[in-house]
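We modelled the chain as a single entity of 246 amino acids. Its sequence is:
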Amino acid sequence: MKTSIQRRLIQLNQAFYVQFAASFSRSRTVLHAGIMESLDRVSPFGSVLDLGCGDARVGRYLREAKLSPEPIVYVGVDNCPDLLSVAPPEPGGSLKAPVRLHEADLGVAGWSQCLGNNAGFDVVVSFSALHHIPGQDLRLQLLEEIRSLLNPGGVFICSVWQVFGSPRLQRKIQPWSEAGLQSEDVDDFDLLMDWQRDGRGLRYVHHFSEEELCGLLQAASFEVVETFYSDGQSGKMGLYAISRHK
């Protein structure tokens, strides 16, 4: 995929989340079962970096979940300031003060500079975010940067939509002409999907097979520990992968 197309797709998604931040946040009042299950599988842990954190709902869940005997350091990163400001989780409960939220574009190399000296995490999570990064090269670049932030033996959890396993998601697929592009401009299994709450918007999504996702993680020198499906009425709307820093 051409770099110019990658930037257009990143800008398309950025514009979507700026326009629909409030309605998007309202649509995510309940945490997906797969998120809770994956965090439970890797607990206990002392620190979490949440990439594509949105309104930091994972942080609010961790505050109450009691997954570790000691308070958890929670840091979130997202490129949408409107989502970051919706309802930041308060320290207390199972969250150690201070809770830090940073604005950065995960599609740009060096995004982790926003963390300053706060690198070195037990767990990094990226729920429903990796599929918004266009192009194999940018996805691999992102994963390699994530790996550099993990403590030795640390765990990376990611989830991606299974569009073709969900009739509801399939109905959202739109022709690329809606975004002024052609199918030849993008990669195989790249999709344009619409949103119809409080107006109409468009987002870029890449559909991963389990084989492709595991291959990408292994190319970034992760050891894939396990994968599983969860979420939605079918229980297969999301593909989750738990990987370890070798």
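As a brief sanity check on the tokenised model: The first helix runs from residue 3 to 26. DSSP finds seven helices and ten strands in the chain.
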